[in-house]
Every structure is written in C-alpha cells, then in structure tokens.
Design brief:
- The protein is of the alpha+beta class.
- The chain has one domain.
- Helix content is 23%, strand content 24%.
- Strands 6-9-1-10-12-11 form a six-stranded antiparallel beta sheet, with helices on both faces.
- A hairpin with a 3-residue loop joins strand 2 and strand 3.
- Helix 1 crosses helix 5 and helix 5 crosses helix 7.
- It is globular and about 65 Å long.
- The protein starts with 6 loop residues before the first strand and ends with a helix.
Length: 314
C-alpha cells in the first residue's frame, strides 16, 4: 500500500482452549489406525511433529467476527464490510473501463480508497491486508515463562495427547444413522497455544477492530475449528505483549499511520481520522523508535485506545 514503512507492530498472543478443539487435516494419510477426522499437524524443525493452529484458521475466525460487527454500517462514508459472495459488491472486484471490456489498472492509493473497513485490515483480492497472523504452537519461546509452557513441557505434551471422540451423523428425515460411526481427534481443553499477529502501516482504529474480534472470541461468539455446533472450539485469547516501532523522527509517542504520513498521502489513500496509541516515549532502536508493552494495565490501555478510535468513526 505505502512506498515506505511508517509504523509496525507485533502482538504476541496466547490462546487457551476452553472446550476441546478440532482443526481438521486435509486427509488422514495412509496410516490405517488414524482417526477419520484427524487434527492438523506439522513437523517443527526443533520440536518434531506437533498439533498446531494454522494462522489462516485464526485469521478466518477473526475476520468473520470483525465483518459481522461492522457489516451494514458506514464509517465516515466508508462501508464497514463488503459482501465477498456478491462479486459486484466485493472489494475484490476488478473495475472495467467505461465502454471497454478491458480491465483498468488502478494505482495503489486508488485501490485502497475503494476498500471497506474489513478489507483494509485483512486484505482483499486486490490489496494485501495490514494484518498477518502466524501459526500458533503449543509452547512459548519466551525465556520468562513457567517450565510447563516451554518446548517439551507439560502443555506441549498435553496438546499432542489428543482425545478420540466417536460420533455419528443422523438423518433428520428418517432418524437413522446417515454417516458413521466415525472417530475424531480433539486437542483437549486447557491447552495453550502461542503465536504472533503482525500489523504494518496501521491506524489506531485497525488495532481496535482486531481488539473487537478478540472480544468476540473471548465472549464465545466466535469459535475455532470444526464441530462448533457440537460445543467444540471455544477459546480465550490474550495479548501478552505489543512491540510497536515507528520512524525515529520528532514523533515521540506511538501513533497511527494517519498521524505519521503526510497530509497529501493521507488524502490520496483516504485515511480515516487517527489517534495517539499511548502516552509513552519509547527508546531509540537503530532508525526506529521502539515501544515494548508487557504490563497488563498498559496492554489494556493500548487495546481500549484502539476501540475508542474505532467507535469515534461512527
């Protein structure tokens, strides 16, 4: 979107399963004893084969939650969420030249101006999103965590000690078994996963929309994985730290990109009103000014500041 980097942040998150979780693998492979519905797994270079939460799975949940929150509303004359099913109303629609069947190639700021709030955060077929969500693993690489949360600790072992639950699909007309019996693997409740969410060139309201999605997960309105109607996939999501960087200029407090970019660029990209993220001066780190937030009260203030910025757009 931008030719240069104005600000960026990495949110370290912790997700704990409240009920068992099943994020299904594409197939069960060639193992004859494998469950019919197996958990997705990957081979970690240091810690071997393990269950994990793909970043794409969590991103889909957060995006759906965000879209449900803002759909049908307008924010400073910008639509909250487009309809991805209706191609003519989707932000991913390629514009056609008037009187021609050829597609018109727009400049990046022209594309950005046409995006809804949700697509400005998570991206569309025409524009990369501001947010990237990385895979979550059942261990923390931090040095100051308790031993059970480190690689090879109790949490890591419990996550891979999956439960097996039997089930059937009932035909609603005849009342008899339609599919099954089948068995499915489940990551047990009480297991923690750790990962990162990165944001680049973001505005305060975009952090607020992410915080709104986190609240949807924590309140139980948004669930992860398969068999959600059967009670699976309820989780709690907590932000453990925020690492924010911006250019080390005369701006000493952390700000959204709308306050860091030039007025001309803000007008070209149709940036929404922005805000200061927190009252802090940070430290110089090379060419950037870095802000590391780990205190629970300060983290809550950052997220609430984003929510306030989001609410002010209505």
């Amino acid at each position: 979107m931008f030719k240069r980097s104005y600000n960026r942040a990495v949110l370290r998150i912790r997700l704990e399963t409240v009920t068992p979780l099943l994020i299904r693998a594409g197939d069960a492979g060639l193992t004859p004893t494998a469950a019919d519905l197996a958990c997705v797994r990957t081979h970690h270079a240091r810690n071997g084969s393990t269950v994990f939460i793909p970043g794409s799975s969590l991103k889909g949940v957060l995006r759906s939650a965000a879209e449900a929150t803002v759909r049908g509303r307008r924010f400073k004359d910008i639509e909250g969420a487009c309809d991805p099913v209706d191609h003519n109303k989707s932000c991913g629609k390629e514009p056609a030249r008037s009187g021609s069947t050829q597609r018109e190639r727009l400049l990046s700021h022209e594309v950005h101006r046409q995006q809804c709030l949700a697509c400005r955060v998570f991206g569309s077929l025409r524009m990369k999103g501001r947010t990237g969500i990385r895979d979550l693993f059942p261990w923390s690489d931090s040095t100051d965590v308790e031993p059970r949360l480190k690689p090879g600790g109790e949490n890591h072992l419990r996550a891979n000690r999956v439960e097996v639950r039997n089930g059937v699909a009932i035909d609603r007309i005849t009342g008899s078994v339609k599919i099954g019996p089948f068995d499915q693997e489940l990551v047990p409740a009480g297991v923690c996963f750790f990962g990162d969410i990165s944001i680049e060139n973001y505005q305060a309201w975009q952090l607020g929309l992410l915080a709104q999605s986190f609240a949807e997960v924590n309140d139980g309105f948004a669930q992860l994985g398969s068999s959600k109607s059967r009670g699976l996939g309820v989780a709690k999501l907590e932000v453990e730290s925020i690492l924010h960087e911006q250019a080390a200029l005369d701006k000493r407090t952390p700000m959204g990109v709308g306050m860091l970019a030039s007025q001309q660029e803000g007008k070209e990209y149709a940036l929404l009103p922005d805000a200061v993220l927190a009252d802090s001066e940070g430290v110089i780190h090379g060419l950037s000014r870095r802000f590391l937030v780990t205190d629970a009260t300060a983290l809550r203030a950052w997220l609430e500041g984003g929510l306030t910025a989001l609410g002010s757009l209505q």
